[in-house]
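User: Hi! I'm working on a homework problem where we have to compare a predicted structure to a textbook description. Could you give me the structure for the chain below?
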Amino acid sequence: MAILKIKNLSFTYNGAENKALDNINLEIERGDFVLLCGESGCGKTTLLKLMKKQLRPEGRLEGGIYYNGKEINELEERISVTDIGYVMQNPDNQIVTDKVWHELAFGLESLGEKTDVIRRKVAEISGFFGIGDWYRKKTSELSGGQKQLLNLASIMVMQPQILILDEPTSQLDPIAAGDFIDALKKINEELGITVIMAEHRLEEVFPAASKAVLMNKAEIYMCDTPRNVGRKLSAEENPHKMNLGLPSSVRIFNAVKGTGECPLTVREGKEFISSNFNCDIKVLPFEKPDYENRRAAIEIKEGFFRYERETPDVLSGLDLKVYENEFLCILGGNGAGKTTLLKIMSGLKRLYKGKLRIWDKKIKEYNGNSLYRNNISCLPQNPQSLFVKSTVYDDLFEITRILEYKKEEAEEKIDNIAEKLGIKHLFKSHPYDLSGGEQQKAAFAKILLMEPKIILLDEPTKGMDAYSKQTLAGILKGLLKEGKTIVTVTHDIEFAAEYADRCAMFFDGQIVSADNRVDFFAGNSYYTTAASRITRHMFENAVTVEMAAEICRINGYKGCGGK
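Assistant: Happy to help. Predicted structure tokens:
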């Protein structure tokens, strides 16, 4: 018998016209690792929340979800809490205590377990996850990766049978995300726990899954092994949007029209390239951006910043020049200070030492209105902080009112930007009811309505599917053609490698390296793209799937083993 069975499930949110889920049927066996994927707003989060009794949203539900043959809503409270664990997207939203050890014990304490049992189980789970070194730390002192690992451990200490995760790596840097996925593999393989995970970053989790469920517009579009899903998607006459989000090895295989078994992992991708292609030409020509005749849009010299007098510096002698009409991506680990750097650039925080100039003008020479109006705008990491009204349209209209646009002009601007971002269908929705990716788009629309010359973006692709990222990139390219300057803080290495003009590494309070996107990633061993890892043993600078496929075509197939 399946551990979880979903039968004829449909769901409509209160006040909504369209179904969020439409006739979902799915059986999940004990020990499965199920990957739930699809574009933003297709119903993934809704489906996951319906699996957890305590998180079920309000609305009209048809059909049912059954855990070991019993409807989820009819489960005893204790069984629902212990047997079905849930890890949220934002690690800060799930942590409830101030100390790591207390967070691990909190769930067991709430269940009324005896002290010696709690201590034994907490010690056991700490060893399993390697938490011992920060066991007595404050939760506020942890990095994003540590917080998410703590959330996972806090759920696992209650020994669940099913572990549900809603985009748990969306706010983690690539290395922390990799560590988290490794922990999930260990849980699934060594403990036999059933894992159900919604995720947009598929590079590492796609090969780890035993079953991939692709959702499309509230329905299940495809359900099969990851290898079969990758092959079926590539074989479709009209390629599905999901093709863009498949692992790099799959996309390279499809781009060069490979034959045989489709590779999933970096190792399999390397073997495919080695076996089928020549390497006469190692370097793909690349036109580097020229900044010689561009003025500085933002310049920081010897910048120092700390939040409190007694705390360490977050910025420590930082030097950075952002050129007019460039797209700069700033990368680095969780907690390095990248978001703080954006706050400095936007004038929300001030350096205690050093200089900041915007358009060669000292920051203190600007008043609030002249700094922000048609000059500089910032999309924060948490888009919800920008929403002040009960519908998306009212929120957008509020900006036009502040900027004193006439009604007809305001409506035209809102329609144009909403059309670009594909959010017109969200106008009547409450911003808090949107998916993470949809919230990002709605918040970005508010930023664009201000028509800034400099656009600062903090994790703009967080929660977005690959197709939405491509749409966002097209919008950013259009803004660059209009002469805008864009600075983005991101963990999304693939996005930066594909679209940035320059990339900069933030570490130890400074920008330690900045270069064009190709040379930046081609020279890295760990902080680089999957395409680079797949091809670097043969080619020197193929840092994107498109570059890897192009240099393969240029070199041609080998006489044996290829076409």
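For your comparison, note the following. The chain has a mean pLDDT of 90. Residues 57 and 416 are 32 Å apart (CA to CA). Good luck with the assignment!
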